[in-house]
Protein 1
Amino acid sequence: MQQIYDYEQETSILLKKEVDWSLLQQGFAIPKSYQSLWQSLPEGRIEKGEKRPVKFFFDGKMYEGASINNQPFNKNKYGGHSDLLQIRYNETSDLAKKMRKKFASSYQFISKERVALGGKAKGGVEIPDELKEYLICYSTIQPDVFVIESLYVGDSTDIKQAMKGVLEAEYESPAIKNILSKHDNTASISTT
């Protein structure tokens, strides 16, 4: 298998995106705050109306069939509008299926809310903070290949809860614990 990620080479986080219905179905917009990162990749700028195939490495598997698009729009009507960069994939693609599986709690929550709203969730469904999940996207050393990782807000909450009341020395590595446990009473700083 060809290497796509080089831990010695600096890579960039290109996107941190809260999971929503669009991401679980057909893709996601790249927020304006991240667009300059995407447009400055070595692969080159994507002009309005252009699209380029991209691949995503996610949970140990390469997913093809996605594209990065710079949506065209009426420049006369929306002259000052910034680019509309999007990652797009088919709802039946392996990548979309993987998104729904990996972010199953978001998918289930949003699906239930959409049913409760009669399938009309204008503006999207708001997921409670404690249930939010995120997609993190990184650049790689391969052109138009990106690494995706998932982040669940509950991960840090679970760790904090598990560590509550545990002394630092109790979870340090044995080597660090050994060093910390040695105290030299003869060591001092002279003030003369």
Protein 2
Amino acid sequence: MPSVTASDIVLMKVGGGSLTGDAYYSLGAPLIGSLEELFPAVQPAQASSGYTDYACAVICNYASGTDGSFVGGRIYFSSQTSSPKTSIQVAVSGEANVTGGEFPFSVREAAPYELGLTFSSPSSIASAIELGNIDSGNFTLLYFKRIIEAGAMALNPDICTFVITNAVS
């Protein structure tokens, strides 16, 4: 029976880049465990007054064969942002393990319109958010929320790291 390897599971940023002309809205190269490429730099005006923005990403399962399901996936942050006045939260779409269609995200400053999203900042595998099973060739949507408190530093990049795993402990 084929097994899923780490290289089969790829996280890619998503959005409407062709509609907005903003590279941070586009489906891009795989993100390697860091949100440095998912959010643009914190701008001075955002740092001064505070700001919240959102980003969408997909976890794709590129395993081959019908037995290549990513079972029991989880996500958590191994470190929060490099600024003490910014934080990242994540929510998993209720439309998990899908095969295609529109990505429901268009405006960076507006919360995703999907109902029932619960954003949190799990910091260990014990508190990790469950991703559900992702069959070969399918994906699951993730939404990220960046909260910049007033008085934060304008950083480029403002990095946090996360872990996607199917380990139980």
Protein 3
Amino acid sequence: MGEGRLGVTANAEKVVVTIRENSATFPYDGEAKTAEGYEVAGISSALYKEGDFAFVGDAAHKVATGTDAGDYDMGLLPGDFENTSANFSNVAFAIEDGQLHIVPVAIDEDAVTWDARDVQKVYDGGPFPPTARAPGTSTATALLGRVQHRRRELGGRPLEGLADAFRPSGR
């Protein structure tokens, strides 16, 4: 009886691995938030398993980070993944985008307290430095978004454009 050799040829049928980035939603609170990681949403071949590929990309692609209200993309790329199985020669990776969503603070204009602590200034149309605070929120310098208000009067003179005088810090 002679020695034989068995040759195994890699499966050349296209296998598509669908990766879904994780998503997260948070209310704005001035603190940094993150959405991170991913899950395997599907594999087009029952023979190909999660252990047959590896993440080889930049770790920063697996994280979306933000502080201000808005949407932040994670940034995974098909090239961040690599087939590690010698049994499959035609593997593609598809990415389903996930997102970090930070929801802006809603301000009830009737609940805003205008407080000009120890500030004296003749209103000249320029920035007016009082502190605006809605219950349960931080000061206006940390609020994201536009402070909405109704016309208020001080000494009979209307304070128009007061909301425009507030600019969130870092913006």
Protein 4
Amino acid sequence: MDSVQSRTDAMSNLMSLLHTVCCRGVGGKEKYDKLVHYMNELGVFEYPTTTLSVASNQHHDILSNISNKITQSPIIGPRYQNDYNETIKLGEGGFGSVYLARYFLDKKLYAIKKIPISSQNIVDFESTVSEILVLSRLEHPNIVRYYTSWIEPIHGEHDHTPSPGDDSYNSTDSLEYQPPNIMFYIKMEICKTSTLAEIIHTMDTDTSLDILRQIIQGVMYLHDQNVVHRDLKPKNILFSTTGIVKIADFGLSALENQMAMLRSSRGSLLYKDPHVYVNDKTVDIYSIGVMITEFICGFNTQMERIKILCALKKGDIPHVRQNIKSIIIKCISNTINDRCTIYQLNDLIQTLS
């Protein structure tokens, strides 16, 4: 973590501490505002005086407010509005949108993922957010960098409602939909807008192997940290601005699964382990086995792709080279104990050319 980020975190912690101490008694808010204003003039804080907001990272306190269905937090103000200059929308998934925004303190551009949370999902969100927050501690060349995250009450309109074109849309959603009143923000590094899903059938063998090896390196790191992705698929494989593979949306799949268990995932179902209830590292191995199949097979139609990838769930392997077929079998075996580990898979892939 660079010095600017460390300073930002220190500022946030100090402001949170001041807020906690000052606001215990009557008139505390006014005392807090005056103290922060004074410290801002001294140069202790680098926030514009007119846009000061408490950027607390005391997530447990925030979650307590959420679980009690309090939409107005005394700790978090309009941090995103005050601290970031949003420019363009980079993309949208089943449960959130990503925007390009410039942070006023270091003047750098970041990808900001916004995940709207409605009151009906507060309990589910509380049960999974701790897993998401741990991602900010992960750092690897093949993992999308998560810098920080925070929660704010939503003021006014938001930009993510279910629609027939949305991956998360289901006919029951339109009947049960409740407008979100909390927004969960995740600050991430910037990646290219195109994903592996868009180019997987256009690559030569050497490029495919290089990308596959980078994916495996990223998953090796995750598994070493006891983090299971649970939603590996080409759509979640991004690329840095210099072309390096970046695995995205790990951990967030748990949020999607718990908060939208009955929603359709469309393409992602093709990559999900039929033994997903096991919920361990082998589910990622299965997903990689499906991606290896997609790397190798040149599908002529979408129907052919769906048919072959679905057949993998029954153990039916398409006609491919025997050494590749044996690797796929070791990834998707219905006998969990027969599946290879990510380290064993890495050794097997190194033998391919």
